[in-house]
Amino acid sequence: MDDIRMTRYGRGGGCACKIPPGELETLLKGLTDDARAGDAGELLVGPEHGDDAAVVRLGPGLAAISTADFFTPVVDDPYTWGRIAATNAMSDVYAMGGTPVMAVNLLAWPRETLPMEIAREVLRGGLDAARAAGCPVAGGHSIDSPDPLYGMAVTGTADPERLITLDRAEPGRPLTLTKPLGVGVLNTLHKATGEVFPEAVEVMTTLNRDASAAATARGIRAGTDVTGFGLLGHAHRMARASRVTLAIDADRVPVLAAARSAVAAGHISGGSRRNLDWVAPHGDLSAAGEATALLLADAQTSGGLLLAGELPGHPVIGEVLPFQGSTVLLR
User: Fold this and answer.
1) What is the SS3 assignment for the chain?
2) Closest CA to 149 of 257, 74, 91, 65
3) Cα(318)–Cα(331) distance, rounded to whole angstroms?
4) Catalytic site positions
5) Is the pTM of this model over 0.90?
6) CA–CA gap between residue 261 and residue 254 (Å, rounded)
């Protein structure tokens, strides 16, 4: 078991294996028009902006949040992969300003290729991450599959008057990012060489719980988590939904120390390049060189929160402007 490299199984890795955002939007076009039909509850957040999770009002002061996330191995150690995948799945609830209250496992496993003992380690990692969040894991669903996949479907709760969504970014607000970028390129390098980057693992296994709680307490109402579409992709979605321009000061964006050299060495995932190609026609990225733009488009796994508001202890990386003709402006 110790000789098995999990990242050799399955294409891509982590959130870099997402369907490209442009293709996804084309795929879903026209399929979500009736999402608000029915009377079981008032749908507060649906598919219209591509928010991190769906939200339905259950009653006065109470909303339910629902999300699901899973992906192929992002690191070779199965226990760590489980922790990262569960942390990432719960992040969608935190990104909406909510609290995870229950999760179920989603597991696909090549049972004739990989020992089931490894699957147990993946599940153990997910369980430990959920325990750290105070979120019980109650069963789930598993299938036999050619590629290993793991994640969770997570249910959370929130105050409907304190939700954080993509479409509430107001001009004049500072932009805050709560985790450094660069885990995507380091994960790509890890897959190629087997070298372990503890700083990347630390980022990916850190819950967004405290940042989310601090943001809601400060009245921040616009934000998202930065995952597979990269900082540029998620900033583009927020700006488009809010009809503003997000100005990002590239030199103020925190980046993991080893990430720049990894970019220079060419360890860029296909997902990161597709992110940049998707955003470029809508943004003004001329102030940045290609290496910087690729880092800002780097497909993150379990990244931090991008918030339209200032959060003490985290760097301000730019500001929200009235629409300037582009969704994202690099300075």
Assistant:
1) CCCCCHHHCCCCCHHHHCCCHHHHHHHHCCCCCCCCCCCCCEEEECCCCCCCCEEEEEECCEEEEEEEEEECCCCCCHHHHHHHHHHHHHHHHHHCCCEEEEEEEEEEECCCCCCHHHHHHHHHHHHHHHHHHCCCEEEEEEEECCCCEEEEEEEEEECHHHCCEHHHCCCCCEEEECCCECHHHHHHHHHHHCCCCHHHHHHHCCCCHHHHHHHHHCCCCEEEECCCCHHHHHHHHHHHHHCEEEEECHHHCCECCCHHHHHHCCCCCHHHHHHHHHHHHHCECCCCCHHHHHHHCCCCCCCCEEEECCCCCCCEEEEEEECCCCCEEEC
2) 74
3) 9
4) 15
5) yes
6) 15
- Condensed to tens digits (0 to 9), the pLDDT of residues 258-303 reads 999 999 999 998 889 999 999 999 999 999 999 999 999 999 999 9
pLDDT at 49: 74
Q: By CB neighbour count within 10 A (0-12 exposed, 13-18 middle, 19+ buried), where does 43 fall?
A: middle
| CB-side neighbour CA atoms (13 Å) of 320 | 27
Higher per-residue confidence, 18 vs 315: 315
Cα–Cα distance for residue pair 194/273, rounded to 1 Å: 22
Closest CA to 184 of 305, 74, 310, 97: 74
* pLDDT top residue among 2 and 151: 151
| Distance from C-alpha of 312 to C-alpha of 298, rounded to nearest angstrom | 25
Residue closest to 10 by CA, chosen among 81, 61, 71: 71
- Evaluate the CA torsion angle 232, 235, 241, 246 in order and state its sign: negative
* C-alpha closest to that of 303 among 107, 15, 35, 33: 15
Which of 285, 299, 321, 93 minimizes the C-alpha distance to 207? Answer: 93
Give the Cα separation of 89 and 301 in Å (integer).
10
